[in-house]
């Protein structure tokens, strides 16, 4: 070896990896030529043996071991490699050399270097067969002397030669019979025979056999099917009669069954009674339990419809035997890790069988009962992972046993629960047990199996690598599916409600101690899963039970803020139940009681509880319009009095009240409520916005008294909540009946708006101040580090740097979490990117950063929501000047993350396919032509500046930043923000390309360039010839638009010439925009994703 490598051509480290990765190089070719010169197989065998000895020697130096490995890899391509390998298969060679020799033969056969017609191949076949039949694999004829790893590789070589280097079975007909006859000779012979057929099965399923073609594969499969009973008879004779109690032989038999399961139908195993032997091994032999379980999984985890048809009785016997084994899956205090793995594997086995055989289960009630018993047993098992598998089975079983009546067929009676489905007595108690995040030691609602809690602790430790909170969330999702599957049967739904009627008073009213909250939470979680599926068609008894349960929940004592918080979360998610009660004629009192409880918490609770109560109020107001309609005025009167008591959360209450007002479905009523609610706030906003319209005033407020800035932030939150919650009916007949529709949409008063929004007056009054504050805010607080704040002296500007260049910790967290969701330390250490200057109050700096961040985010959200109130904003006479002077100037001087916020919260919302729905086509065209020719180039230019800065050799300094240093953490955030903003920009551009069309001339933009600007994309036009809904960037399907635009030839020609933005767009920015836009395919389904990136992207609001 030293002489072979005397040229020193082995490269250390990356060189060796490069050779393996690229597969060919001059060095490798040179070595191969030198190896090829070793024509004598004996010499080559000696060199190979020496290389193998070096590899196996523990004291060998790493560099020499790498050289020896490469030599062995080169040998496989040598013309004399097979002859050299045959020499090393002799018993005189070392076991390691024999292992490599048999491996070389197996690889040579699979790669086609042993063609069946070659006379040397016949010699190889004869030699390998003689090793088995005449025991020449061992020098003494005793195969027990041969190491097992050599025997394993020998059977692989023999199997590969049979598959790839012979025409077996037709070309080598005596092979199988000779192997089975010789297999009776000894335990090792029998093991080798079984391993041979296992390797045959593996070869049939491998990718290499595709080289031989499909007919060859099918011929081998057909031979195994035809001779399967002969093979199974040999297996049974070997492991039961001839050589009982041989561990290696039994393991080989189980592994053979596992591989044959992918080649033979299940009924072939049943005909040979293989399942009975496997069940006996699973119960009695701990050494092979894992392998037996894998064999059963391979047998059952596939569609068995044909097996059910051909052998129904044996299939039921097999499954009954499996379910009998499940009875023994009990977790006690003496549960071991091996036992637990088997029990968990059994649960996965039954779950997989059910997943693959849903049609067969639906047709067989006796099979449903059998599998339900298995699922119930697993529900009792002390492991959340096993319980997850059990809860995954239940929805399929319940849908099979309680089928939903067809909507198109004749009317039939709702299904009744079968005798084996005891909802109240068995199913619901077990689901209650599974709903616990952690079962308390004091659990006494029913008897648990002996040692349950100790075993639960043990299995949690064994499952430590699993995401146990995620598993528990998945269990809760399966519980919802289970409750939904009960819905077709009113009797089953009523039984579930009756169980809860007995459970809730005890669970919610239990005396407080360290463990009562766990049961309190589990009871509400189970109720929460059931509530959405109790409908009016469930019957009056079910509605009465639901009403009683809501009353019990509201009247239960709250022992701690934790209890009350969980109840508020439940009430917010169960708001839809009030609508069902209202339809049944019993919703009013419950709605009043619920809101009384919520408002009581708002008045007396601490800040966190108060916020939860308000969020609950918003959810109920949106989910239960029919229940709220009769009590709307009383609700509003009570809530208005609370506004002054909750200055920090009043925007949430405003959102709730505006959402509640939509239940009236009457324009005048909704408009009056919004005017009364927000009129006083508008009166505060107008002078405040005038005061803050100067950049210097905004900056002085931040550096000094922040009361006005905080008030402006609070008012903007209220307006944003109002605008996004004020909706109009989607059904035309309801809109017309409620006074929302506009009969003369082309009149000067409405200027192309088709539906009136009750918040239009508020939006029109707020918009001028919003534009003034928007413009002043971006002038006072440029955040990209390249501009000085406007209108400030040098000392004030220096103080303001602390707030401009140091992002708020929530912004930092959003940026860092987009890179690595598991690292939250950057988001928690808010001062790391730019710590407060010495002498500054760290708490005040933090509060100031939070205020600036909140103000910025709310400005963008408020403007984006305001554009949704089209008859108050798009028809505003000063909108054109506001767009030019304020709203389209915010991208200048902004941090790329803030650019992303603007694109996402303002323009992506406005130009989404569902945006501007109540505006006419002409109004949408004019708005698009006024905005897009400036927005797209400005956004592209802002992002281009960020990319250019990151590409500079010294990106840590910028000449316009006043000497401010961009530290590595800030540069990392700049890079991440640029990537996020670029993705959102492409998402916007691609959405416009997918769903937009070319508008006509714009009334808001005049002149010849404006005519060319009509080529901008529109949010609500599409190809009228495409009848299929398309996927839009926000994930919803959007049907083709109602109207199609006609593109004038002149406008089309100007658009193709690149005239997007008129005279206000510079050539550089225009080219940036066109390059960004043109790269998006109009038919692309995923405009924001890299084709190689399959992971969901994390965006700042936490959604994937």
Unreliable segments of 5+ consecutive residues:
1-33, 817-832, 958-964, 998-1104
The biggest sheet, with number of strands, parallel, antiparallel or mixed sense and barrel status, is:
2 strands, antiparallel
How does the helix and strand content classify structurally? Answer: mainly alpha
- Average residue-wise pLDDT: 81
Number of strands: 2
Order of neighbouring strands in the sheet with most strands: 1-2
Helix tally? Answer: 52
Describe this structure in words.
With 1104 residues, this protein is mostly helical. Strand 1 and strand 2 form a beta hairpin.
Strand and helix layout:
Elements: H1 14-22, H2 26-36, H3 41-56, H4 62-75, H5 81-88, H6 95-110, H7 119-133, H8 148-164, H9 174-182, H10 187-205, H11 214-226, H12 228-242, H13 247-260, H14 266-271, H15 274-284, H16 289-300, H17 305-310, H18 312-327, H19 337-356, H20 358-362, H21 365-379, H22 384-401, H23 423-434, H24 452-462, H25 468-486, H26 490-508, H27 516-530, H28 540-555, H29 561-573, H30 576-583, H31 588-604, H32 607-623, H33 625-628, H34 632-640, H35 650-661, H36 667-691, H37 695-703, H38 707-725, H39 732-737, H40 760-780, H41 794-804, H42 809-819, H43 825-828, H44 842-866, H45 870-873, H46 879-887, H47 896-910, H48 921-951, H49 968-995, H50 1008-1013, E1 1030-1031, E2 1037-1038, H51 1049-1056, H52 1067-1078
Antiparallel strand pairs: 1-2
Helix pairs in contact: 3-4, 3-5, 5-6, 6-8, 7-8, 8-10, 10-13, 13-16, 15-16, 15-18, 16-19, 18-21, 19-22, 21-22, 22-25, 23-26, 25-27, 26-27, 26-28, 27-29, 28-31, 29-32, 31-32, 32-35, 34-35, 35-36, 35-38, 36-38, 36-40, 37-40, 38-44, 40-44, 40-46, 42-49, 44-47, 47-49, 48-49, 48-52
